[in-house]
Amino acid sequence: MKRLYLLGLAALLCCVMAAAQASDIQPILQEHKQIIAKSARKTIAPAIDAIAKSGSPQAQTVLETWAAKAMWMRKSDGVFFAGEKAEDKQYRLFDFDSGEVAGTYPKADLKQIKPNSGIRAMIGTALVQFQLIDPDAARRQAALTSIQRDPEVRFLAPLRASIEGEPDVKLLAQKRRLERLLTISFDKNTEARVNAIEEMSGDLGVDLRATLNPLVATTRDVALGEVPSGLNIADILAPGTEFFSRTDAYDLLVIKSLAQPKVTANDIRNALAANIDGGRVAGIPVARLDNDTARHRAYDILAKAGQAPARVTTDDVDAALASHVFFESYYEPSPDVTTAANASLTAIGLRVGLNQTLDLALDALSLTSIYFLAAIGLAITFGVMGVINMAHGEFIMMGAYTGYVVQRIIPDHTLSIIVAIPLAFVVTFTAGVAMERLVIRWLYARPLETLLATFGISIALQQLAKNIFGTQARPLTAPEWLNGAFTMNDVVSISYIRIAIFILALIFLGVFLFIMKRTRLGLETRAVTQNSRMAASMGINPGRVNMLTFGLGSGIAGVAGVAIGLFAKVTSELGSDYIVQSFMTVVVGGVGNIWGTLAGAAMIGFLQKGIEWLNPSNTLAAQTYMIVFIIIFIQFRPRGIIALKGRAAGD
Amino acid sequence: MQRSFIAKNPSVLIFFACLALFTLAVTVLSEGFGVGLASTSFVKTLGKTLCLCLIAVAMDLIWGFTGILSLGHFAFFGLGGYMIGMWLMYERTRLIVVESLSQTEIPPTPSEVVDAIGNQIFGVVGSSEFPMIWAFADSLVLQLALVVLVPGLLALVFGWLAFRSRVTGVYLSILTQAMTLALALYLFQNDSGLRGNNGLSGLQNLPGVTASQDFVSVWFLWASAGALGLGYALAAWAVSGKFGSVVRGIRDNEARVRFLGYSVETYKLVIFVLTACLAAIAGALYYPQAGIINPAEMAPIASVYLAVWVAIGGRGRLYGAVIGAAFVSLLSTWFTGGQAPDIPLGFYTIKWVDWWLVLLGLSFVAVTLFAPKGMGGLIDLWTRRKSPNRHGLDLGPDEGALREQEASK
Amino acid sequence: MSTLLEVSGVSVSFDGFRAINNLSFRIGEAELRAVIGPNGAGKTTFMDIVTGKTKPDEGRVIWGEKSISLLKMNEAKIAQAGVGRKFQKPTVFEDQTVQENLLMALKKPRSWLSVLAYKPSTTDLDQTAALAQEIGLLDALKRNSGELSHGQKQWLEIGMLLAQEPRLLLVDEPAAGMTPQEREHTTDLLLEAAKTRAVVVVEHDMEFVRRLNCKVTVLHEGSVLAEGSLDHVTSNQEVIDVYLGR
């Protein structure tokens, strides 16, 4: 297909430029006939150059044909053709310039030009200049991508040449950017490089940092006496600092063969072991060699006798360090460039830092919404009824498994999520109501026992889930349109799932506020929260309110379970992974107030991300510190950020 | 009126008699000292159960008597285990290292020995340096002191912070749970200095002891029984007098005790630290019998199980806690060990390994609902102990002073 | 007569509501005082402030001849200093015996170590017996206090207060829910107590107050409305307005 296209193109060009015999490619090929036929990597360069620079419209075709091992030489006259396999070991040849069939020949009459991989790479480079101006935008893009991946000095000129006349705006921008980057790396003119660096300073692209970082890479070296001139020195190192200890310095000397290697404790032991003579080493009984002093004495005697290399003393080290100068030098020879690059990297670092803070804030916000979703149901039951529901995590898990089962029945992911969310609500609402009626109702006066009874339910439910669904994680796949991420720049991005969860959290906040402030149930719930006996005497049935509230809290947990299942693995332990954080959220936020829960979730979310940022390698430590922080926080606000007076407040 | 402590508390004598009888029976049946009817691993299970009974006594003191539902006592239990484990592991590794280094031509220097021990112990977490916290690991005496001091200090700091700010009830429970979680997570790290999630292992081998496990297991059973007896006596003595009156007062109505002039916070702190130390001692005896300790042992769930044992046994009476811990943990071992027979239902076979937790969870709910006094309530039936006629509902120890006016609301 | 407790210029508000508003109050040693006032007058909050349960926003609470400020002390310290309080609802420790209740209240060192090492001496036991006699519970000494009747619990609580040997007794509605005979007994107990210490009785029931026959302080909306003998205050027009509605 490609072949046909190329041929067609070649034919077209042929017709248009029929008169332009001067730019025919065949003469150039003939000029370099020998080296092309020899096909050796060392000698081939002039031939490729000549073709690439010929200005012939056929140059690209020829190079491509050549690289594809489809160029043949007619043995009889040495003319090159594009060849195509015909039947019976016959090959059909096409003339490069005219594009017409030059006849069909048996293989014996022809020589196939087989470039090796080295030559193909050279051809590939030569081709880039053609691909950069290829009429097909996809091929131009491919060429740019390949340069981005593997920038080299030789692409600079063709890239610059291709900028003018680029019709596609997006590609033009890419080309311009790439040209700047290549200029920074490879331009011969220092001033041009510095200009390019300064021009791009503050850009957040990863590619820019990848270009600049090698420029400021340094190597440690040592010289006798003075720093050698002609090097681009980054820093003179004084041995004995935190980043360059005396040991490091001496090791560097040893590596550079400027000093004797130190005799290690191991060396000493081996030397002593090798020189045992009748239970004694250098006259000292072996049994007494169980401390360093004795060993050193014995070894020094061995060394004096020439049986081992002498130990390097502290004086030796001092002398060696004093007589040498240690420095770090840039690989990049031009100081102007390294200075500009350093300045630019500092500027970028600052902006990257700012953007990372933004990214962190977005992460924290999404964590906040997850904790909020997980904790809101708990906050309702705890706040309104003073009941700690240890099985709350298992309701989250039930919601997630509901989502999984729905997805097994309805394969369409979008539809299944739409079905799963209300279904999860119904399932966990029912479970919650059942639990309230059967267990919790009898324990209202005994909060600690409620905690334990719900814990009993929690372990039973968790094990039940394990028995039904097994211990391995079950997938709950997000719909296609939730895949991917919203990317602001190379630093800031947030996945669509997290945005969706954030929106879901907002919806829940809205729904909750609506129920509490605008509906009869909300009114009754608030009444029962503030004074249950008074509410009862006004005709509100506290039992019914408690039941519905508990159901509502559990139902929300189920929906949160679907949301959490979308990005976490659905296992029977899903709930217990979130339960402690949910408790923290409620406790920190203050009981019985939705804004308190929100504040608690925000505090825990931001705190966790903040600590992770300070100590990114260690999420376990981050969680530890967060809990310690919360314990201390409770010292100052024992009733949470937003405290409520009333039945749940305890006094 | 001036009767002795034992005379006032006959149950302590009965308990001692039962414990002595039990220990004697196990010794007679053991492989090391007796006829060999009880396998060594079973003796170990029994020894471990005695340790669990001890921590249950501690839990009963803090929960049943003082009314603080601590979900953190297994953290102290684990810390105690870690402290003794450090010495066991260090000393045993040292013996092995010295043995192997004595084969070399040149006798090792002390620093070579320490380096080799470090390599052996911390090789699994990619380190060979001894962290600071192992500074005393070479001394049995110091490490034994740390068994009590480290958990005691943690309890002191945590308790002081928590009680000072008047955190009570479920808040305090959640907070103790958070403390346990934080500690477990911290220990899960490789650079915590306690071998991360590998934990400490090989603890069943006592350094320098050549006797077989058949004997060692019985020694530990004796030690555990002794510790349980002492712990029980200490707890019974503490709660029998005026101190017991005050802590039960705190449980029933903290504010009232405060207005009587007692510093409630101090009392809570004393009980919290005391029970933490008891738990740590139990842990220090438990883990050499278990042989291995890792941070998973300290997960918050373990402490909740502890509460389950005490609740099933019966809160507010020490023997209830012991019965509960022994009964539930042994039953749990029996069920999860695969010894309980499966129940074929035709269409489904109930495997107890899978269903035991479901049964435990539900029976726990049932106990909370229908028998708040737990198994200790059965003893009430037997002794016909008369409980106050409260006219209203039994509110349990955590809800104020059993005020009948409010109970009937 | 020297002043035992002086409360001056105290205000406290909850969520914007001023429960106590610039209240000043003083009581001397060995004085019986009744505090009356309609619901929400701040009677209980006043007691909360004196006993350290509630910290006022402003004002001073000065105690004893050394003029110590009670505001910096916690509830236990204040109680140890000699302020005893009886709650509205009878709050005794119901699963402990009458004797245990009294022993706990007895004026003895409160630190945990001395409590742990405490063994009741014969004097202590005699003292509890005497107290039990006084509150009419001598027969019930070994009974669980949860088994007592409502009135008996009230007495037990008063007995515990007396055992504390406080210099100031704050009593919140001691006669609530009592039969006439029980009331009489209660009156006697209070009058007896007031001979040796200061007693503040908060009460609704005018009949009960009349029987106490002492100086009366009327609280209204968080401050003192009138003070004097019962006849004096009941003839005060403002007091009549407050009690009977305006």
UniProtKB/TrEMBL annotation, chain A:
Keyword annotations: Amino-acid transport, Cell membrane, Membrane, Signal, Transmembrane, Transmembrane helix, Transport
One annotated GO molecular function: transmembrane transporter activity
Transmembrane intervals: 370-392, 413-435, 496-516, 547-567, 579-607, 619-636
Segment forming the signal sequence: 1-22
Pfam families: BPD_transp_2
Record carries keyword Transmembrane helix: yes
Membrane topology: Multi-pass membrane protein
Subcellular location: Cell membrane
Example of a GO biological process term: amino acid transport
Assigned GO CC terms: plasma membrane
InterPro entries, per the entry: ABC_transp_permease, ABC_UrtB_bac, BCAA_transport_permease
Family the UniProt entry places it in: Belongs to the binding-protein-dependent transport system permease family. LivHM subfamily.
PANTHER family: ABC TRANSPORTER PERMEASE PROTEIN, BRANCHED-CHAIN AMINO ACID TRANSPORT SYSTEM PERMEASE PROTEIN LIVH
Protein name, entry field: Amino acid/amide ABC transporter membrane protein 1 (HAAT family)
From TrEMBL, chain B:
Gene Ontology molecular functions: branched-chain amino acid transmembrane transporter activity
Principal subcellular localisation of the protein: membrane
Membrane topology: Multi-pass membrane protein
Gene Ontology cellular-component terms listed: plasma membrane
Keyword Lipoprotein recorded: no
Intracellular or extracellular location(s): Cell membrane
Keywords: Cell membrane, Membrane, Transmembrane, Transmembrane helix
Protein origin, superkingdom: Bacteria
Entry's transmembrane regions: 71-90, 140-163, 170-188, 219-239, 266-286, 292-311, 318-335, 355-382
Name of the protein in its database record: Amino acid/amide ABC transporter membrane protein 2 (HAAT family)
The organism's taxonomic lineage, starting at the top: Bacteria, Pseudomonadati, Pseudomonadota, Alphaproteobacteria, Rhodobacterales
TrEMBL record, chain C:
Alphabetical list of InterPro entries matching this protein: ABC_AA/LPS_Transport (IPR051120), ABC_transporter-like_ATP-bd (IPR003439), ABC_transptr_urea_ATP-bd_UrtD (IPR017781), P-loop_NTPase (IPR027417)
SUPFAM superfamilies hit by this protein: P-loop containing nucleoside triphosphate hydrolases
Protein name in UniProt: Urea transport system ATP-binding protein
GO CC, one annotated term: plasma membrane
Keyword Nucleotide-binding: yes
Source organism superkingdom: Bacteria
Keywords recorded for this protein, A-Z: ATP-binding, Nucleotide-binding, Transport
Domain ABC transporter: 5-246
GO molecular function, one term: ATP binding
